[in-house]
Specification:
Elements lengths: L1 E5 L5 E5 L6 H7 L19 E4 L1 H4 L7 H7 L10 E3 L12 E4 L6
Parallel strand pairs: 1-5
Antiparallel strand pairs: 1-2, 3-4, 3-5
This protein binds FE2/S2 (inorganic) cluster.
Length: 106
């Protein structure tokens, strides 16, 4: 599946991601600066915050209680589209996924 990460300034990074990888892992592997992921994917840092675009948002499992708590601690404002990218597993179902990167992670 293809995932497109969009920087706050509109720059797009299109990345081919193997199914089963996390949206966060794929960004780190691709050298995308907008995701920091300090805790390494344990839903404990909120520095992997992304905004998931419209039609894809509902294709992911809902926000867990743990994720919900961390999303209250994001540096950039939380919106209805906010997710922790370490909690998002890429599958064929989300091919074409677009996530926007927040202004700041730390
Ligand atoms: Fe830390 Fe996602 S990498 S919460």
């Amino acid at each position: 599946p293809t995932v497109t990460y969009i920087d706050p300034d509109g720059t797009k990074h299109e990345v081919e991601v193997a199914p089963g990888k996390r949206v966060m892992q794929a960004a780190i592997a691709a050298g995308i600066d907008g995701i920091v992921a300090e805790c390494g994917g344990q839903a404990m840092c909120a520095t992997c915050h992304v905004y998931v675009e419209g039609p894809w948002a509902e294709k992911f499992p809902p926000v867990s209680e743990e994720e919900d708590e961390m999303l209250d601690d994001t540096v950039s404002p939380r919106t209805d589209a906010s997710r922790l990218s370490c909690q998002l597993v890429v599958t064929d179902e989300v091919d074409g996924l677009i996530v926007r990167l927040p202004e700041d992670q730390v």
